[in-house]
Design goal:
This protein has a single domain, classed as Vaccinia Virus protein VP39 (Rossmann fold, 3-Layer(aba) Sandwich), CATH 3.40.50. The chain is 28% helix and 21% strand. The chain has eight helices and ten strands. A ten-stranded mixed β-sheet has the order 6-4-5-3-2-7-8-1-10-9, sandwiched between helices. It binds S-adenosylmethionine (SAM). The site of S-adenosylmethionine (SAM) has 22 residues, from strand 8. S-adenosylmethionine binds next to strand 8. It holds the Pfam family N6_N4_Mtase. InterPro entries: DNA_methylase_N4/N6, DNA_methylase_N6_adenine_CS, RM_Methyltransferase, SAM-dependent_MTases_sf.
Length: 261
C-alpha cells in the first residue's frame, strides 16, 4: 500500500492529479463556522472551537474564516476538481457541522455530485454540554457520488450513525476526528476484486486521520495539507503508526512524502 502526503494548497495540488484516478473522496474541510455573527466566525479556530479551560494548546489551522458566500465559492472550486479526478460512480463524503450543513449540501450538488444522504457522527455524552439546551453532540457526513452508484459495488453496508467518542490520546489536531470513526467511514470506498483497497483522496488532511484510517483498512490514500505544522504532524503520525514502513521525501522542489506500508 502507498500513502502520499503533499504540503501545499489543495486547489493547486488537485489540478495536478489525473482525471478518473481516485476511488473515493473523504474529507473534513475547514467549515468556516463557529459563530452566529460574522465577527464570531472570523475569530481564530482556537477561539471558536476549543472549550474554555482545556489544558492542551492547539496550533491554529488555516482557512476557517470565510463568510458564507466565499465558503460556497471556494468549496465549488475544489469540489469540481475532486469530481474530475474521481472515477465514475465513486463516493464523496464531506464533514460539516449544523451551521454549514445547507451550504455544504448546496456545494456538493452545484459541483455536479448526486447528493445521497447524511450520516451522523454521534460524539457521545462526552461532547460539549449546554445548560438548558441540547448537547452539541453531533457532526454530519454529507455523502453523494459522481453519477450513478451501482448497488453491486464491492463495499459493505455502513452504519447511518457512527457513535465514537473523542479520545485525547487519539487527537492530533484541534478538530481531529477519531481514528475509529474514520476506519468505519473509509469502508465506503470500493475494494478491487482481488481484495485490495482503492485510492482514497483527502485534500484537507489535517493531522492525517483519513490517511491513517485508510492505510489501516488496506486502502491506498493521497492527501494534502497547507499548514506546515500539521503536515509534519501527519508525517510523524504515519511513521509512528507504521514503524516498518519506508517513508521517503520526493526529491523535487515539491514538498511531498510517500510511505510504502
Ligand atoms: C478540519 S481540519 C482536518 C482535520 C482532520 N480531519 C484530522 O482528523 O486531523 C482541515 C484542515 O485543512 C487545512 N487546510 C485549510 N485550507 C487548506 C488548503 N487550501 N489546502 C490544503 N489544506 C488546507 C487546515 O490547515 C486544516 O488542518
Amino acid at each position: 500500500m502507498i500513502c502520499t502526503l503533499h504540503h501545499g494548497d489543495a486547489l493547486n495540488w488537485l489540478e495536478t492529479l489525473p482525471d478518473h484516478s481516485v476511488d473515493a473522496l473523504i474529507t473534513d474541510p475547514p467549515y468556516s463556522s463557529g459563530g452566529l455573527t460574522a465577527g464570531e466566525r472570523k475569530a481564530t479556530p482556537s477561539v471558536k472551537y476549543v472549550k474554555s479551560g482545556q489544558a492542551k494548546q492547539w496550533v491554529d489551522f488555516i482557512g476557517d474564516n470565510r463568510d458564507q458566500r466565499s465558503q460556497l465559492q471556494w468549496m465549488l472550486l475544489w469540489l469540481a476538481q475532486c469530481r474530475r479526478v474521481l472515477r465514475d460512480g465513486a463516493p464523496a463524503c464531506l464533514f460539516s457541522d449544523w451551521r454549514q450543513l445547507p451550504l455544504a449540501t448546496d456545494a456538493l450538488q452545484c459541483a455536479g455530485f448526486i447528493w445521497r444522504g447524511i450520516m451522523v457522527w454521534d460524539k457521545t455524552e462526552g461532547a460539549r454540554p449546554h445548560l438548558g439546551r441540547p448537547r452539541a453532540q453531533a457532526e454530519y457526513i454529507i455523502w453523494g457520488s459522481k453519477g450513478s452508484m451501482p448497488l453491486t459495488r464491492n463495499a459493505p453496508v455502513l452504519p447511518g450513525v457512527i457513535r465514537e467518542v473523542v479520545r485525547q490520546q487519539d487527537k492530533h489536531h484541534m478538530t481531529g476526528k477519531p481514528t475509529a470513526l474514520m476506519r468505519q467511514l473509509v469502508r465506503i470506498c470500493e475494494r478491487h476484486p482481488d481484495g485490495t483497497g482503492g485510492i482514497i483522496l483527502d485534500p484537507f488532511a489535517g493531522s492525517g486521520t483519513t490517511l491513517v484510517a485508510a492505510a489501516l483498512e488496506g486502502y491506498r490514500a493521497i492527501g494534502c495539507e497547507l499548514s506546515e505544522h500539521y503536515y509534519h504532524v501527519t508525517r510523524e503520525r504515519l511513521a509512528a503508526t507504521f514503524p516498518d514502513s519506508n517513508q521517503h521525501a520526493h526529491d523535487t522542489a515539491i514538498e511531498q512524502v510517500s510511505l510504502n506500508i
